[in-house]
Amino acid sequence: MRKFIWPVLVSITLCAVSACSLRSTKTVLTGSMAPGFTGLGTMDIEQFELSAFSYREGASAPTGKSAKGGCGCN
Amino acid sequence: MRVQLKHWMVRIILIAVMFQHVLGQDSLQTQGNRLNQSDITLLLSYYDQDGDQSAVTGGTGTEKLKVYSVKYGYRRAVSPHTALHLDLGIDVISSASTDHIDFNMSSASKKDGHETIAVGFSRKGPRAPVEYGVKLNGSLESDYLSRGIDIWMNRRQELTTYGFQFKMFFADLRWGWLNKPYLKPSHLIYPAELRDTAWFDSAHRSSYNLFFLYQRALAPDLSIGIYPAMILQRGLLSTPFHRVYFAGVQRPAVERLPKRRRSASLSIRVNKQFANSGVLRSLYQVYLDNFGMVSHTLQCALPLRLSPRIVISPSARIFHQSASEYFAPFNTHVAGTQFYTSDHDLSRFWSTNVGLQISMRRRPTDRATGVWSTPAFSIRYAYYRRTGGLHAHVLTTLFRWDREDLFIKRVKPTP
Q1: Stretch B243-261: mean pLDDT, rounded?
Q2: Which of residues 7-46 of A touch B (CB under 8 A)?
Q3: Based on the number of CB atoms within 10 Å of its own CB, is B87 exposed (0-12), middle (13-18) or buried (19 or more)?
Q4: Could you give the 3-state DSSP secondary structure of residue A11?
C-alpha cells in the first residue's frame, strides 16, 4: 500500500503548485464544505460517498463510525 | 434482495408523493414579492465491500457486505425566506459477517434494512445575510433506533462565511424494532455462544457533535476554509456482537470499550480556480480522541468543465490513523485488561480512495418560474482500499430538479 502513497502525494503536490501558478479572473468557487458540516442544504454526492467509506475508519471525524449511533455493518 | 429493494422503493416514493401533495398547495399568500427555490433530489447507490478482518468473528473472517441505498430529499419553498425539508432514505443491507453472530449461515442476521427520515425548516433573514435551520431526524434498523436534532446557522458576508452546526443523536441499541413478534426494543444481540451473560447494563448511546465553519475568499480565484469540530459520545460505545479472543483462552468475550469518548478535529480547505474551467479543491484534516487515536487526511478533487453543461471531477483521498490503545488483533489480547477490541476499524492503517464523477447540469433555458427544471445528473464511482485488505466499490447516481417559486405580495383593494 505504501508504494502508492508517495506517487499520489507527489501528484497532488504537483497539481496544487501548477494550479496556484495559473492566473484567473473568475470568482473562486467555495466547493464542498468540510466533512460533517452539512448544513440543511440538498444532498451532496461526495458527502454521501465519503460517509460510506469513512464509516470504516474509527478516527475519521466527524463522519466516522458510530458518530450517529448504531452498530453498523461489518 | 431485489424484491425487498423494490418493496422499499415503492414505499419511499408513496411517502414522497404524499408529502409533495400536502405542501404543493398554492402559497402565494406569503408576504414579499420575491423568489425562493424548491428542489427535489433522488440518490441511488450501490456499495460492495470485501475483506478478511471482521470484528464479529474477533478480527478475522469475512467482511463481505453489500448495501443498496435510495435517498430522497425535498426542499419546498413556502415563503420568500423559508423552506421546509423532508429527507427519506432506505438502505437494504446484506452482510456476510453479521451472519456469523450465530452459527446459522444465511440466517436473519444476514439481511437488514435501515430507514431514515428527517424533517425540518430553514430560513434566510429578510435583511441580514443569515441562514439558519432546524431538522429532526430518526433512523431505524433491526438493532437500533436513533433519534436526533440538527441545528444549523451561518452568516455570509461579502468575502467571509462563518457558522456552526450542532447535531445530537440518541440511540437505543436493542434488537427487535423490525422483527416479529417483537416489533419493539427487546434485548441486545450478543454472539450466540455468549448469550448466557448480560455483558452490559445499558443499551443507550448519545452523541453530541459541534462543528464550526469559517470560509474566506483571499482573492477572486482563491479561498480558504477552517472547520474545527468536537464530538462527545456517551453510553454503550461497544458493539455487543463483536467478539474478542484472548491469548490462551478458548472462550471469547464481547468487545468492551469505555463509556465516554471525546474527539476533536480540525480541517483546512484551500480552493483554487484556474484556467477558467477548473477548480482545485484540497482538504487536510487532523483528528484525535481519548481512545488514543490520531488520524491525518489529505483529500483533493479537480473538477474540470468540459462544456457549459458537463463537468468531470477526478478525486483522491489518503488517510492514516494510529491504533486505539484498546485494540489488539485476533487472539492476542491479554486476559484481565479492562477494555479490549479486535475491531480493525480501530487499528493502525493507511487507506486510499480514488474516484471519478461526471456531472451534467440542467439546460440553462429551464428557468421559467414555477416550473420544474429538467434534471441535473451526476454519476460517481469510487474505489477504496486500506491496509489489511479491506476494499470497497461504490457507484452513486444523483438526480436533482429545481424550481423557482415566485411569491407575490397581495395588495389590499382600496375602498
Answers
A1: 94
A2: 8-9, 11-12, 15-16, 19-20, 22-40, 42-43, 45-46
A3: buried
A4: helix
